[in-house]
Structures are given as C-alpha cells and as structure tokens.
Amino acid sequence: MIEISVEELRSDLIAYIHRVENGETLIITRGHKTIGKIVPAEGVVDHQSNAYEIPRVGSWGGKPLSPWEPTVINEGPEQVSDLVNLDRDENNGSN
User: Which residues touch 23 (CB under 8 Å, ≥6 apart)?
Assistant: First the structure.
C-alpha cells in the first residue's frame, strides 16, 4: 500500500496505474487527509504468487450469487433476437 497526494497522482498517472495493475493499493491524499483509495480489480495478477486470481462466483450487494443454469436453450434454427421479438409480440398482443 502506498500513500500519494493528488498532485503526485496527476504528475505520473500512468506509472501509478501500472502499480495498481501489479497488485498495489494506492491511498490518495489531499492536504494530509485521505480522500480515496484505488485498489486492484478482481482477476488481476496476485503479486504474491504471480498467478491470476479468478473470481469463482459473482456478487451482488456484497453477497455471493448462487450458480445458475440457463432456463432456455435455443436448439432450433432461429436466432435469439428472433425469439425475443416473438416473445415481445406475443406479450404485446400483436402478431
């Protein structure tokens, strides 16, 4: 974790972005007051093991989502967009 001022970030943004890509967290300050944090996104290189960390399950509102299976599988010659349009027409009462 590194603490930098807004001015430092502005002066060498690309270098700091590369540091975040490599797993570092940046604490942004203005006038010795912390105003923000830049953290690596999920799935970036874990600099401790030099391996990619891939999230297994997504989350919503901080809670993990359960795995799901698609409810409709298109096994016919129609394109998915055709099926969506057909469904819209049927639900709107038109043909």
Answer: 40, 44, 45, 46, 47, 48
For residue 72, give both structure tokens: 């409709």
Distance (Å, whole) CA 38 – CA 8 = 14
CATH number belonging to the domain at 1-55, selected among 3.30.540.10, 1.10.10.10, 3.90.550.10, 3.40.1620.10: 3.40.1620.10
pLDDT band of 70, cuts 50, 70, 90: low
Cα–Cα distance, 18 to 89 (Å, whole number): 50
- pTM of the shown model: 0.45
